[in-house]
Amino acid sequence: VxxxxxGGGLLQAGDSLRLSCAASGRTFSDFAMGWFRQAPGKERxxxxxxSRSGGNTYVKNSVKGRFTISRDNAxxxxxxxxxxxxxxxxxxxxxxxxxxxxxxxxxxxxDYWGQGTLVTVSS
Length: 123
Hints:
Helix content: under 10%
Strand content: over 45%
Oligomer: single chain
Shape: globular
């Protein structure tokens, strides 16, 4: 499956942003989807994941209450709504797909990765 993330940009602390990731090449609803991020000089980390149906989601504790993951299987797209952004949210955000029914926080479960979209949050 090919993944194309979009929506990144330069923002100020407190702003909101929605990332989108369009999938193609395979049946989108066959995959659990996830978002990871990698800040400069840091390892890639899990952000959020959603099950194939969209019925189950999991969000990293540090962004819980600010970030929401959702998907539209009719549009083959997964979203990451990010509110109340902080400078520490600055990172390249990657969308991922796992041939699994349920969500996962484990990077190795994800077989497909998009190219990433840069989110920069200034104070």
